[in-house]
Amino acid sequence: MKLLRALLIAVIVTSLTACFGGEEEVSPADEAEEEKEVEIEYEEIEEEEENHEDTLSESQEDVVNLDDINPIPETIEELASQMPGPFAGESNPYEVTEELEEKMSLLGPMSDNPTDEEYELYLRYVYWLFADDYINPQDVIRKWEFASSGSPELPDDRFQFKENYNVEILLDASGSMGAYVGNRTQMDIAKEAIQSFMAEVPEAANVSLRVYGHEGSSSASDKELSCAGIEQVYGFAPYDETEFQEALNQFEPRGWTPLADALEQSREALSEYDASNHTNLIYVVSDGIETCDGDPVKVAQSLAESNAQPIINIIGFHTDAEAQRQLEEMAEVTDGIFATARDEDELKREFERAEEVLKAWEDWKEDNLREIELQEIYNQSDINNTRVNWRTRNTTTSVTLHQVFDILWMEFNYLTLDQKNELINKKDQMFDVFEGLVEELDEQMEEVSEQTIEDAKKSIEEQFNRRVNE
Asked: Smallest Cα–Cα separation from 405: which of 429, 421, 428, 393?
């Protein structure tokens, strides 16, 4: 508007000068033409100012405030439950500078005299961009309870070994499972891990393999076909290596992800295996979120509450944050067990843990305490693994954030040297707190492990003695 007023004043001054300054007289035709030009310029300036106001409005909508970003974790529970950021696991931020600059453009350069709130905003924002996925100790403890299974004295009767044992694998065969991890597809890695796991299942157990998403393609035109593509390709039957391998080889990753309907079909199939005399286990191996409009959390809860009362183990294989959040919620509402696997070794490790539980089932029938005694070693290994996991992520993320602040200073000119150093100082204080949480977690897990082992030994010994005296 200032520009518009200046132009109008200039026109008025020019007109007054022409009238009173003795300049050459302007004809009515010239005057009309001049007024027309002024009107055109007025319209152009008004349009430019409207566009400028629109740009300001859009810019203001993109502003990120402190209230828009979650606080940095301060407790074990908060750190354990945090979701990975868009750059999680990225140890070299210099390789993603373009993507980083796009994200940081929402903040822009730090002001000349930043307040404590502005420092906090920068620290929070950068942290959540690179926040990593920490092992959840609650999932580890649930595994301990699961591994101590067998005693009729256990409060959760799902963990009591029954006369019959049934194991079903629900395998995601959607198109995303065709992605490569290293030089192999996720599907090839999953198939190999499942085959190895099934080879260790007790001979008396019935096993099943149910796949979903292996029909059609990931295109919208194939959605209906793919979402209906759920098939029990093996069992329930005793494990036969040749037949099971043939069942595994008959499908490849193709389409959408009907996880909810796959769980529903599993619920229907398990309905004939009542929990009163069957121990039922389900293993869900998935890398993605439900894409067929179902509600897998709701169906999983219904499955857990059914007469089969299965123990539901969920392995998120190479998932993103959204898929992990849904899978974790499924485990939460079913009192199930959730684990993440980023690569082939981690996926195999989760199935190896399941193998130990199956072996424990056989040993229980022989009234043998060997597995419970070994569980103390396994627990200690889990504690060590959790400690290393947390400390490694602390160290890696701390170093990465240091590099990010260097990039914001040297590459983007978003920070001064003093501002960069202040953010690094605040970052170091934050990770000092995180290290304290690691020590606190370590102590808590040691206490829980000791109590779990002692309770399990006592319960099994009492049951064993009763059987001997009968």
From this structure: 421
pLDDT on residue 341: 80
Whole-number Å distance between alpha carbons of 347 and 349:
5
Residue where the block lists tokens 């599993």: 266
Nearest Cα to Cα of residue 251 among 329, 159, 311, 169: 169
Q: Kind and range of the H or E element at 278?
A: strand 278-286
Which DSSP symbol is given to 54?
H
- Residues 265-276: pLDDT tens digits? 999 999 999 888
Q: Are 316 and 336 in contact, with CB atoms under 8 Å apart?
A: no
List helix spans (H) across 171-229: 186-198, 223-227
Between residues 439 and 89, the one the model is more confident about: 439
Structure tokens at 468: 């001997």
188: burial class by Cβ within 10 Å (0-12, 13-18, 19+)? middle
How far is residue 217's CA from residue 226's CA, in Å, rounded to a whole number? Answer: 7
Q: Which two tokens stand for residue 197?
A: 């796991």
Residue 209, classed as helix, strand or coil, is strand
85 in Cβ contact with 129 (< 8 Å): yes
Q: What is the pLDDT of residues 178-197, one digit of tens each?
A: 999 888 899 999 999 898 88
Cα-Cα-Cα-Cα dihedral of 263, 298, 73, 317, to 10°? 10
Q: Does 468 have pLDDT greater than 50?
A: no
Q: Residue holding tokens 């354990």?
A: 80
Residue 68: in which H helix or E strand, if any?
A: none
CB neighbours (10 Å) of residue 252?
Answer: 14
Name the nearest CA neighbour of 401 among 369, 384, 425. 425
Task: Report whether pLDDT(46) > 50.
Answer: no
Alpha helices in 21-106 (DSSP H): 28-61, 76-81, 97-104
β-pairing, 230-237 with 206-212?
Answer: antiparallel
Q: Does 236 sit behind a cis peptide bond, omega within 30 degrees of 0 on the bond before it?
A: yes
From CA 304, how far away is CA 335, in angstroms rounded?
Answer: 8
pLDDT confidence of residue 203:
79
Three-state secondary-structure class, residue 156: coil
Token representation of residue 320: 């993103």
Mean pLDDT lowest among 92-101, 147-156, 250-259: 147-156
Report CA torsion sign: 81, 86, 91, 97.
negative
Q: Given this model, what pLDDT does residue 279 score?
A: 85
Contact 205, 358 (CB under 8 A): yes
**Radius of gyration of the chain from its Cα atoms, rounded to whole angstroms:** 32
**Which residues fall within 8 angstroms of residue 338, CB to CB, at 6 or more apart?**
136, 139, 314, 316, 327, 328, 330, 331, 332
